[in-house]
Amino acid sequence: MPATIAKGYRVHLVSESPTVPCSCGESTRVLTRPDGLACNFHVTFIQDSVKHYHKECTEVYYILEGKGKMELNADTITVEPGMVIYIEPNTKHRLYSLEGVRTIVLGIPAWNPEDEYYDC
Which residue, among 81, 113, 95, has the nearest Cα to 24 in the 3D structure? Predict the structure, then answer.
């Protein structure tokens, strides 16, 4: 089923969305900034992301599968399925796991590669 785009709404199948390599691992980009949307919706598999932050984007991670650790500024938390992590702009963060973690990443405003900073 192709994406349904109508006035006021959109319907996408995750299975028909492009999966691309990213600095976090591998990301299925369901809703993206180039679509002209206010947010992004990515399903991302992460084993060892690079610590970074965003100056504009607030990110919300919903952990679907796997367990791991997430560094948030100077703190480290254990992540597991069912957990939601809300990350404000300028919060340095990194997720890592030996087995890998599958997570939904919602970004508002939609993720922009120019808003990813690695000077941590």
Answer: 95
pLDDT digits (tens, 9 = 90+) for 9-43: 999 999 999 999 998 899 999 999 988 889 999 99
Q: Where are the beta strands (DSSP E) in the chain?
A: 4-6, 9-11, 19-22, 25-31, 40-48, 58-65, 68-72, 75-79, 84-87, 93-108
- Spell out the domain ranges in the chain: 18-115
- Picking from 49, 50, 53, 60, the residue whose alpha carbon sits closest to that of residue 116 is 53
Q: Longest C-alpha distance within the chain, in Å? A: 44
Question: CATH 2.60.120.10: does it fit domain 18-115?
Answer: yes
Residue 41 and residue 31 in contact, taking contact as beta carbons nearer than 8 Å: yes
pLDDT 10s digits, 62-94: 999 999 999 999 999 999 999 999 999 999 999
Please name the residue that has the structure tokens 């599968």: 65
